[in-house]
Amino acid sequence: MDHDVDSIVSGLKKYYNKKNIEGMKRFGITGKNVLGGPGIPALRKMAKDIGKNHALAQGLWKTDIHEARLLAGFIDDPELVTEKQMDEWVNDFDSWDICDQVCSNLFDKTPYARKKILQWTKDDKEFVRRAGFVLMAALSVHDKKLDDSTFIKYLSIIKKHSGDERNFVRKAVNWALRQIGKRNKRLNKEAIRISKDIYSLGTKSSRWIANDALRELQSEAIIKRLKW
Fold this sequence. Notes:
CATH topology of the largest domain: Serine Threonine Protein Phosphatase 5, Tetratricopeptide repeat
Number of domains: 2
Structural class: mainly alpha
């Protein structure tokens, strides 16, 4: 496959599969212009073959094609990504998988990630707010140098938005809470404390977030891994 927008899009369109599109809908993947293939492993292989290419990523994103946008997130160069691009792309998110892949493979590697967490978690748009919490979860796994105080501040943001009943938001809130609580013993203790506070808020969403987080954070596997 040639490494230009037209050639890549032409190659992607060969994977069009109506049955797969219907199957993806059952998993909540309902964005526009979905081809139904190729899947993430194949797209990652394509990205490896292409290499980092900021200009090509921009062109692929502008096609509005679901799989092309996933590929764009894999090949873009985080050192060349601007705040403006991040804000434009996040407002284009129309599916949880696009949100999660771009945030955890590209945006979390930019110097703007922490700023966008604070900005996006305040946004009322469902996928923008989700993006803020996905970034939070990604940083808790990928950035080994961040100090505990940063994540303790994030726990207060998690608590604040734990009553958001929208499915794609509450799942991301839960994800961020669990990932922070698995980072080390101190944060595990803080995350468990916050989870209990969240449960006491009494909403359907807060109870679900808290119960699911506590189940993992207090599990034997996590206790053993963190060497309590």
